[in-house]
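User: Some background: our group keeps a shared notebook of sequences we're curious about, and every so often someone picks one and asks for a predicted structure to add to the entry. Today it's my turn. The entry only has the sequence so far, pasted here. Could you supply the structure so I can complete it?
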Amino acid sequence: MLGIDPYSTGIKESGSVDGLTVQLYKEVKMKSSPTRRVLLTGAGIVALALPLAACSGGGGSSDGKIEISYLTQSDDANTNQAKALIAAFEKANPDITVKLETQPGGTEGDNLMKTKLSTDSMNDVFHYNSGSLLQALNPDQTLVDLSDQDWVDGLTDDFKAVVSTDNGLYGAPWGTSFAGAVLYNKKVYEKLGLEVPTTWDEFIANSEKIKAEGGGVAPILQSFGDTWTSQLFVLGDFANVSAVNPDWAEEYTANDPKAKYVEEPAFAGFAHGAEVFEKGLLNEDFASMTNAQAMGALATGAGAQYPMLSATISAVQQDYPDNVNDIGVFALPAADAADTSITMWQPNAIYIAKSTEGDKLEAAKKFVAFANSDEGCQVQNEGGSIAGPYVTSACTLPDDVPDLVNDIQAYFDSGKTGSALEFLSPIKGPNLENITVAVGSGITSPEDGAAQYDEDVKKQAQQLGLEGW
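Assistant: Of course. Here's the predicted structure to add to the notebook entry:
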């Protein structure tokens, strides 16, 4: 998993199960608000917080309007987008008032949220993670089942899975998805007559041709100066793992001996990281290059391919705006082209607390539906840069999105997507980035690295108190 809270100052404060995107935020946090907003709108990765005060139950305000409360995170990007959503909703629904409440995210916020939900004192509507962190909220007991709402039919199956249990569907998407894949320089590919690879062997062949004929262009960029970036060969491969074994995440969470990183298909991510180093396909300064430097090298054509998050296109939009559409994206290839799928980080969602009742509940359902209406989608489109497709047919991407978003959309259209592991399992060992740096630098063999990570995962699962560990 890539980490879930780009607005946190570190893993300790993050509501995520990992820190990759936390570190991504550190790289771009000093940039403009649109750059920060892409981390909100581009992915389902923001760990949001609890209200300072909450309203529930039926009843209206003193002026006869129905009043509901909406919780989001207190950073500027979240707050500004929430204000825009509320303003548009209240204009369309003059009989409803929405009170905005905010609170910082992180582990403290997660714990407070659980407490609020368990004591029936949560805000009427709130914005939070999808996937495994949602499951930790015990949604069957604490949230309103929204599976009968009209907008549900427009959701992708991947998104439905990360906001559902066997008993109901609880969340409506807010923001776009984004990918963990290979960003590539299209001009380098065109100059060398390369085609987008669909198998790992084709990817290696392309990389070797770039090395031989590219005139000094680095075939594959790695940026271990920011250690979180080393994880993409493992984490970005998970859609391919799921394509081979759709039950892998469930088996992994249950400690099935077959669902281990020392075993295929999951072992491939460690093997690939080692192979590209052994074949000399990396930039010479891979050990010290930062993510920001790597994005610059990719944008200018000094590097050809970079396993990375599509959300990092925001850095190119700011620093190399004329080069944005020189960058495309393709899925990390599997051994078999039939299994090659792109790994997606799902957006956050909007939920209704089960303590919301009566007129407030009907108003809350209207508010959630509005977020997935034409007007709500317009608020999302205007809220910042976009790094992936929407997961609902209700929203249409604007015409001026980076070209790589259209590349990702093609995988959606062909049904070749899969959610990142963090949306399907709560288990993420804390030392993955250190292990993948060692494997990707030739210090540790991929076999030893995978074994180390399986042990790392075991410790983390035991700390979570999961059955079978």
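Suggested note for the entry: Residues 132 and 424 are 6 Å apart (CA to CA). Residues 446-464 form the longest helix (19 residues).
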